[in-house]
Structures are given as structure tokens and as C-alpha cells.
Amino acid sequence: DTACKMVRWLSAKLGPTVTSRFIARNLLRLLTSCYIGPTRQQFVPSSDENSPLSMGNIYQKRPVLGDQVSRPVLACLVHVAYLYGEPVLTYQYLPYISYLVAPSSGAGGGRLNSRKEAGLLAAVTLTQKIVVCLSDTTLMDILPKISQEVLLPVLGFLTSLAIGFPSGAQARIVLCVKTISLIALICLRIGQEMVQQHLSDTVRNFFGAFSLLQELQDQGLTAESLSSCEMPVMEVPLSDGKLLALDPAVLMELQKVFNPEMAYITYIPFSCLLGDVIRTVVPNHSLVEKLASVYLENMSPKSLQAISLEQAPSATGSDQDTRGTEPFSSHHEDSHSGTFGSVLVGNRIQVPVDTQREGLGLLRLSAGTDGFIPSSSSEENALKHDLPRSTHMLCGNWLAYWQYEIGVSQHDPRFHFHQIKLQSFSGHSGAIKCVAPLSSEDFFLSGSKDKTVRLWPLYNYGDGTSEVPPRFTYAEHKKSVFYVSQLEASQHVVSCDGTVHIWDQFTGKLLRTFDELDSKVPVTAVTTMPPPYHSISVASADSVLRFIDHRKPGLQHEFRLASGVSAGLIRCLAVSPNGRSVMAGFSSGFIVLLDTRTGLIMRGWPAHEGDILQIKAAEGNVLISSSSDHSLTVWKELEQKPLHHYKSASEPIHAFDLYGNEVVTGTVANKIGVYSMLESSALPISTTKLSSENFRGTLTSLAVLPTKCHLLLGSDNGVIRLLA
């Protein structure tokens, strides 16, 4: 239960692409595991049992143990579809189902393995869920696909004389009951005229199995007579001149499955559903009728009596007559038996008063013997359960991007930038100076020249053209905000306009401010320490680095990083991911490395010829710096020579962020470049010029969302855009 809740919460939080690639893919794989092994394929014992099949009707899905195990998995899969809409069902689940049921190629075609067998059961169960959730138009659009890629392959396995099931006849019976209940569900949804057009092959293939077995029996080939035969597979000529490969063990399975009882519980409801149409759809209807009547005659009179007693209370009127015990007396006379809204009681059609009012979706199928009694709507047995209109429905650019993403392999380490516009965030009236995604990637912070910090949601919304308002605006600053970030250990926001503000991201309450005592030396750079540290390092114009902790007054530490005028101002700070060293970049191109545990300067070196614009630290003691001399350089902390040195052709890289082993850069000319730290080439792997329809204004700040593979780009006109 808890796991289910967490998966649902994550599905909404992670957004459509990550959810589909990592959560839905694994849930689909899990679904197969729910049906592996003979024990999972046993019918769940019900309280009053005549025989395992005639209990319940074909619409009333007779649950097996695997169905109980798979319920939470299915619930989570349907929840993802509720969040992101029908495309999830048609573009992700259906292709996976057709992959599960595709006939296996290669030498092992003779016998299924237990995973393939479980896959077939999972596929049919999931298809049933999908059909219930699809709207009428979508169902009609993809019906040929369901028929060709799901139903016919499943029936191929089900009726094959050469392919054995590892769990024997039991697995076949379960698959047979599930498949027939799925076909019946589709028939109920689309009506009898459509069945004749689209599903006649499917129904014909199913009932054809009875004829095939009958023909083999007429030739004297039964499982008993063949058991003495040594040959594992033999060829048998049929009346239409074809040769048929046949495995005696499989024949035995089939005779257990397609017996008179199966004929009875499948043919009678179908003849009621389809009316006279069944004569044209099923050429061997007379044989199946005969088998069904054989089954009825063999049932002892006692059990027949029990059935009629069972049915008596289930009739909606008082006119219950003896026809309940003779299914064949009535279904020839009624020609309109397949119409929507009519109700089967046993095998008799009854149109109750309340179906007109309740409509189709509320027909609930009860568990009388082939009983079909409307009662209040129940989620389990509804024929149609429309997906609610969610605000996160995939459409437009989001849909196009999502379709591309679910096709990408999960292990692709590269950052691909397609320049697909997903969302715009407008609200700032001045240029964006900094953007900072929160670690969970469902919100981000932005600081601007308009003296405010805003918190924005990153959930998918609309078709890519929509503009999202901020969730919260912090307006306590007096000057332009040049730094904002989240202090992860305490979940507070740190922002700076020359004075550092520490405030609560949930309430917006200011917790503490910090500014230099001497107003002539303002704060020039700030950075937050990684968790579990609560400290903030602040650099001021006199080249002093101070550490403060919002939980106690005063300073923690104070270090002078440079003396004399030559080094210039500290432009930017970065902290290594483990929190052990702080790097400061000066306006003269100098970088100083400080050990936070000892307070000693480990190294200071002239890294660039121009002003240092930005520094970032990465795992493995690596730091990356960009400068106004057009260069981007990758350094190892204590090595003299740089690991990589890149040159930007036309303009300096004033904003960059890291994605794995790649550096994603942005320049004033609105060019996005991707550099690899694994390759020695000085040129970027890819360069993209932002088009004016996707991005207006001049690029001022950039941030990568590493899990979602998106880019946040801030511009000088106050609008932030999310691109993929």
C-alpha cells in the first residue's frame, strides 16, 4: 500500500518523460512477474463452486491468484494514464503488449518458457484495463491494431497444436477465459455491426479450435491413441488439404481446454451478444452448439436445479420461467440479442427498467451463472471508465517530446538539445540574473533585476505555448538580486543583492540577513554548502571569505584569500560536492582553492587572462571555469595543467551548467553548446542557435535539470523558458 502511494506520488512529481521511461517501463515488466508459476495461475476459490468455469460469466473476469498480486501494479499503471492521458495507453502500453504477445522466433518455438506464458496472461489483463479506459473514438481507431497485434497472436498460441504451455492445461484455461472475456468486453463496447466488420476473424479463430479437435477425433487421433506413439511431433493431413504439425502432449492440453464446458460458457453468451450475426461469423456454429448441449445433458439434474434456483432471485421481474434450465430453447428466437443495454439472465434477454436510466457504463456484471445483472456501477466491472481531464494531459510540444523520449534507451549519457519549447514563466519585470532548480526538480527559483525572487512550479502544463505564473514572490530585497539558491540541509532559500537574505521557501518568512559591517566592501559572491552542512560562504570586495550559519549569530570562520590590488574582486564561488574545498574566481583571472577543514589555501594560480565569469565544481575534484577571454577550462584540483581547454569562437561563455560528463554552455549570442569532458577535442559536440520563436531577448542565465534533461533559460526581458 505504501509502495503504491509512493509510486503514484513520484509519477506526478517526476513529470511525464521520467515517469514513462523509468517508472512505467518497470511496472510493465513487473506485471509479467505477477503471473509466473503454476500457483499464480490457479483460480481463486469462490464460496459456492459448481465447477471452476461455469461459475461467473465470461464478462465476469474469473480471478486467478496472479490477478490479486497484479492489482497494485495495474492500479499504478492506470494512475499514470490518469495523470498524462490516453497517449500513455496507446503509445507506451499497447506497443509493449504487442511485444509481449509477438510469436517467438528461433529454435525454441516449440514450447513457451514460463516468462512468455506469464507475459501472455499479463498482456491480456492489461489490454482489458486499456479497453475500459479508452474513449470510443480512440478505441475504434486502434481496434485493427488490437485485433492484429494482440488478439490474433494470443489466439495463435492458445489454439496451437505444436506449442506447449509450461504450466499445462491450467495456464491455457486461464488464458482462454481471459481472452474470451476481453473479446466480449470489446464486443460490448463496439456493438454487433462493428464486430462483424472488425472482429469476425478473431471470433472465428477462437471457435475454429473446436472444429479442429473434432476433425482430429474423427480421424481417430486422440491424446490416448497417440500416447503410445514415440514421435514428438507429427504431421497430420486435414480435410482442406493442409498438413498440420501436432504434438501429442499439446493435443492432450487442448482437449482439456476446448471441451464441451468451454463451448457452453463461451458460445451461449456470444450468441446472445451477437444475435443471428453469430451464424455468419462462426461457420462451425452447429458443432459448438452440439458440444454445449452435450455439456448441459451431462450436468446432473441436481446441479441444473441448483442453477435455476440461483437464477430465480436474479431475475428482475417475477416472470422467471423454466427457460433458465434450457438455454437452447430461447436463443434461436431472439434476433436482437446483442444490442447494447440488454441484459442476459442465464441465457435469456431481459431489458430492465433501470438500464435506460443508468446508461451503458453502469452495467455491472454479477456472478450468477452466466448472469448479467445490472446494479450500481462498480469500478472493477465497468465497460467504460473515461479518463478524467487532468491538467497534466500530454498535448502539443509536450506530447511530441514525450513520444521521442520514450523511444530513447535508458542508458544514453549524452545531453541532447532539440530546442522544443515546453513552457514559459513570465512575471519578472527586469532581466533574469540567476535561476536555480530545487534538488527535486519540481520547482525552481529565479532572481532578477526587479529586486524579487520568485518560486515557480515545473509540472508539465498545456501544449508548450502556455505561460505559468509564479507560486510565490519574495520582495524583501532593496537592490538587484544576483544570487539565489536552496540551502539543502535546512530547506531554506539563500538570496543576495549585496546583502544575504536567508528565508523560508514555504512561508516566505525572512529568517536572517547578513551584510558587511563596512558598506564600502559589499558582498560580491555567495555559495551554499552541500548537505549535511548548514553553512553559507560569502565573499566580499576586500577578498575575504566568511562562513556564516543561519542558526547562530556572528561568523563561523573568516579567511583572507588574497592581499594587494593585483588579484581584483572575487567574482564567483564554488564548493566541491563533498564540501571539502571552496574555489574563488577573481576578476584578474586568478583562482584560489581553500581547504574548508583546515582553512589553509591549497593552491592559487592564474587560470585565465580575463575576468572569471563562472566556476562550477564536479565529482572527482574537478572544477570548470569560464572567462571573458572566451575560454572554458577543466581543472583537476591539485594539478598544474588543465585537463581540457575549450575556446568559444565568437563570444565568451557567461553561463554554463553540468550534465554528467558534459558541460552545457550559453553565450550572449543565444547559442547553446555542449562540450564533453571525456573527449580532448577543443570544439563542442553540438552547438544550437536559439530561434526567435523559442527564445526572445538575450540569454542571461542557464540551468540544467539533470534528471529530466531540460534546460531553463533566463533572458534580459524577464521571461524564463523551459526547453528540451
UniProtKB/TrEMBL annotation:
GO terms for molecular function: phosphatidylinositol 3-kinase regulator activity. Keywords: Cytoplasm, Cytoplasmic vesicle, Endosome, Lysosome, Membrane, Mitochondrion, Repeat, Transit peptide, WD repeat. One of its GO terms (biological process) is aggrephagy. It is a peripheral membrane protein. WD repeats lie at residues 425-456. The keyword Membrane applies. GO terms for cellular component: autophagosome membrane; cytosol; early endosome membrane; late endosome membrane; lysosomal membrane; mitochondrion. SMART domains: WD40. Its main location: cytoplasm. Transmembrane segments: none annotated. It is found in: Cytoplasm, Cytosol; Cytoplasmic vesicle, Autophagosome membrane; Early endosome membrane; Late endosome membrane. Pfam families: WD40. Residues 311-337 are annotated as: Disordered. The keyword Metal-binding does not apply. InterPro entries: WD40/YVTN_repeat-like_dom_sf, WD40_repeat_dom_sf, WD40_rpt, WDR81. Residues 320-336 have a biased composition (Basic and acidic residues). Belongs to the WD repeat WDR81 family. This is WD repeat-containing protein 81. It comes from Mesitornis unicolor (brown roatelo).
